Amino acid sequence: MEISVDSIHNDGSDIKDVSGAGSSCLYDLLCSEMPTMESQREKWMAYGPQKRLESLMCQAGNKLCADCGAPEPKWVSYSLGVFICIKCSGVHRSMGVHISKVLSVKLDEWTNEQVDELVKLGGNTVVNTKYEACVPSYIRKPKPTSSNEERSDFIRRKYEHLQFLHSDENLSCPFPPSQGRHHHHHHHVDKKHYDKQPTKHRIGLAFRNSWGRKDCDHKHSKKSHHSLAGMVEFVGLIKVNVVKGTNLAVRDVRTSDPYVLLALGHQSVKTRVIKNNLNPVWNESLMLSIPENIPPLKVIVYDKDTFTTDDFMGEAEIDIHPLLQAAKACEKSTINESLQLGSWVATGDNNLVRDGIISLEEGRIRQFISLKLQNVERGVLEIELECLPLTQ
Ligand SMILES: [Zn+2]
């Protein structure tokens, strides 16, 4: 059925005018159906964005990754309007936010407006009708088990180079229009959506920061590394909330302009700079992919200097193995109540102020860590980690 809940809602007043036209089956049907639809829409909106998102996720077309067909995808490119698996989401992020803006169904907090945008784009089936309208026979769509290379190749052709659009939108398509598989069904996805996407979402920004800068770094440094970047195997994602710093070191005359750099393997992301503050509150979430070898998460605090190199204000290293293991273990269990899973115990050998307790709350594995900054005279940094293993 093509009628969206939205159109019924908007056209409700017009439909009432039909009452003058006498009784018809359609009218009877509308009289009985309309109040239900109306109240259903209200109920639907009252569920809140997260529940609405989950119900979208359950729609037939969205139960498989739009790009590789993996079951139960938990990631969304909300600028393209597709539900994708975590492996494909890595490729989407690597293309940059001008192509695809990725959010997690579970980890990110969605707004009703973002869900509305997603609803408008129509879901996996509609979007694939456009972006895979004309896939040449020599191109194979990746499978859930495909290598990162195959996956990346297909996804970039599909969304970045737009090679499979219907032939009147894509002059390089090797098939004449009559052979296009979905002749009448293109143009479902309005290109304006690219510009209309809200860009102030914190995680979205974090992705732009991390991947945008990464692309930039590659351009300036090793070119060969760029092609390899898409081939690194990731075992999961880590969301780092940089909460606050306390009693940080003075680097300017009386104060500092601190920011935090997080590095994991070859990736790095930065928080914003907070001016003139030795007790800055960032409360900023940044996302990093966890490479296969699971390197330690490096945390470095700098003082932003406009005219000279930024000054060092301390550093710390975090072992993310325990968190990742807890997340993997919990994934298989069906425990719903909150509980403490383990901790990273503060000792003289590490830089913890107190034990870094790993907890499970509402199905999310989190660890709060208070770090004594090293190689600096003073300063404590509080961060919160959340981990998603690759299988999600
Ligand atoms: Zn996939």
Could you characterize the architecture of this molecule?
The protein has 392 residues and is of the alpha+beta class. 33% of the residues lie in helices and 23% in strands. It has eleven helices and 13 strands. It has a six-stranded antiparallel β-sheet, sandwiched between helices. It has a four-stranded antiparallel β-sheet with strand order 6-5-8-9. Strands 2-1-3 form a three-stranded antiparallel β-sheet. Strand 8 and strand 9 (311-318) form a beta hairpin. The longest helix is centred in the N-terminal third of the chain and has 22 residues, at 25-46. Bound molecules: zinc ion. The site of zinc ion (ZN) has 8 residues, from helix 4.
Ligands, ions, cofactors? zinc ion
Considering DSSP H and I runs of 4 or more, what fraction of the residues is helical?
Answer: 25-40%
Cα-based radius of gyration, to the nearest Å: 25 Å
Task: Give the CA-based shape.
Answer: globular
How many structural domains can be distinguished in the coordinates?
3
* CATH homologous superfamily assignment of the largest domain: C2 domain
- Distance from first to last alpha carbon: 31 Å
Strand content: 15-25%
Count of helix runs: 11
Structural class: alpha+beta
**What kind of sheet is the major sheet?**
6 strands, antiparallel
What is the CATH topology descriptor of the largest domain? Immunoglobulin-like
Under CATH at level 1, the class of the largest domain stands as: Mainly Beta
Number of strands: 13
Q: State the CATH architecture of the largest domain.
A: Sandwich
Which strands sit side by side, in order, in the main sheet? 7-4-13-12-11-10
Overall pLDDT level = 75
